[in-house]
From TrEMBL, chain A:
UniProt source species: Nonomuraea polychroma
Membrane-spanning intervals of the chain: 12-35, 70-91, 103-123, 148-168, 206-228, 260-280
Record membrane topology: Multi-pass membrane protein
Domain of life, source organism: Bacteria
GO CC, alphabetical: plasma membrane
Subcellular location: Cell membrane
Matching PROSITE patterns: ABC_TM1
Keyword Transport part of the UniProt annotation: yes
Membrane is among the record's keywords: yes
The protein's name in its UniProt record: Carbohydrate ABC transporter membrane protein 1 (CUT1 family)
One record GO biological process: transmembrane transport
Lineage summary: Bacteria, Bacillati, Actinomycetota, Actinomycetes, Streptosporangiales
Family: Belongs to the binding-protein-dependent transport system permease family.
Pfam families according to UniProt: BPD_transp_1
Keywords per UniProt: Cell membrane, Membrane, Transmembrane, Transmembrane helix, Transport
Automatic annotation (TrEMBL), chain B:
GO biological process: transmembrane transport
Cellular compartment(s): Cell membrane
This protein's record includes keyword Transcription: no
Family indicated by similarity: Belongs to the binding-protein-dependent transport system permease family.
PROSITE patterns the record matches: ABC_TM1
Organism of this sequence: Nonomuraea polychroma
Origin superkingdom: Bacteria
Membrane topology classification: Multi-pass membrane protein
Protein name as it appears in the record: Carbohydrate ABC transporter membrane protein 2 (CUT1 family)
Amino acid sequence: MKTYERAFWPFLLPALLVYTLLFVAPSLFGIWVSLTRWSGPGSEMTWRGLDNYVALLHNEVFATAFTNTFVMAIVGGGLIFAITFLAMVVLRQLKGRAFIRAVVFLPMVISIIAIGAAVGFLLNPEGAVNTVLGWFGLDPQPWLGPEMVFRCIVGGLIWSSTGFYVALMMSAADAIPAHVYEDAQLIGATKWEQFRHITLPLTWDVFAVSAVLWVVGSLKIFDIVLAFTTAGTAAAPPIPARTIAVQQYIVVKGAGLPELGSAAAMGVMTLLVTAVLIVLTRRITRRDRVELS
Amino acid sequence: MRRLIGDILLPRATAVALWAWVAFNLALIAWVGIQSLKDSRDVWLHPFALPTTPRWDNFSSAWQAAEFSSAALNSVVLTAFGAVLIVAISAPAAYVLARSSRRVAAPTISYFAMGLSIPIQTILVPIVVVKLSVYTFMEDWVTGWWDNRITLLVFQVALSVPFAVFVLTGYMRSLPHEIEEAAEIDGAGPLRAFVQVIMPVARPGLTTVFVLNVMGLWNETLLALLIAPLPEERNLPAALLGLYSSMQYSSDWGGMFAGIVILVYPMIVLYIWLGRRIVDGMTAGISR
């Protein structure tokens, strides 16, 4: 018997137990809590059935948070992958491409809270961005005011996340042998055609995974909202900027008795939306694997 | 016409945009560093000027404000222990899952992959409940004390295991099968074979997962705010958030930028040191 077959359970069990007891079991407990009215250990838990969900659907603040999260996932994702594809068209042959890849990835390693603090400073009503606009005779904008803050957050999100997908996809594209492109050039394919017919099909696997990673990541966006908005009122971002995760955090941490049942219902709804979006993404990205023979 | 757009206009414009993006990123990082050395008046009034005389004491005032020194210690300890534990738990599991021909292996891999799609919000309420219960339980019945930072560490590890197992399983599959055979012939047990043969060969993949987790744990915000919110329990992002909102009143802007530098620059150094390997190791794990 192979050594790894003998070691199967001893090697697997720690990870399996940690994951099951501290991740899967709590998820199931979360589903249970979402069907109750409860303010935490020590207080009475009463059965509510689906009432928490019904109440959420009628709650306008939650509806805004829900729409925001959804817009971030779809619009943000569309823009991120559009930029990624554009970058891939040229990045293969560009001088200094390793450097470009490394630097566009950089925001990923930086705490979003730090980015928010720095950018929030720049976008202040009397901040540097408005000063620069003034030099060109443009009016100062209320960047972090209720009307524009959400757009600024989405912009910040795209700026900080796109580099990750560029780096990931380029890393996959680099594995394609150069002679394939040379053949394509001989028959007169433009760079865009080369991307469409060579690069994209051969990196499709990584794209499919990237799309799922984005969907999952985008639905739990939390800290960037907090970072862009704490300058205003501490720990309670304005309603137009909230995501589901932020709204849930406010309900759990807010003053008074927390409505854990309602907060748990938000978590379960996020889980459902994630599941639906993942299935859709996998559907759209499903293709036979292309391989070079 | 098609050639003009597809071969010249579009690529040129994209290349220019990419370089502008690069310049922006570098400028922003340098700008934060420069701001951290100015006095608060200059930070506010001349945001694009160089510091007249470098104010290194911004760092000491940031360090003392908002319990930054204990926050830095919390971050270092939580990040180091967390990343080591995640790899120590995930790597052996990923290895046997990638290699085994048992029928249970494939479903178990899917079971772990399922964790990737469970958003943290689903278990947010249970985490709060567990946090409170564990604290009371340990305080009243077992040790007489408890520290929420331990709860934070445990959950950070548990939540990171699925991704680590996912990437490492992919990576371990790409390793040649011959490597264990030598160890087997020498009669090494599974643990010795793993530590002395597999781990050195799998080092690029393990480094990738380790570094990604270091960055994730260092920047962790939601869990930290939720589980360990007291000033002395905070990690660096939570402390910076506290510093940022209190800056509105004390307006020590130089100190705030010094705080940003303390939080950000260590990860940039780590990234410059190990950068490229992170992404390459991840693609190897994802595409197989």
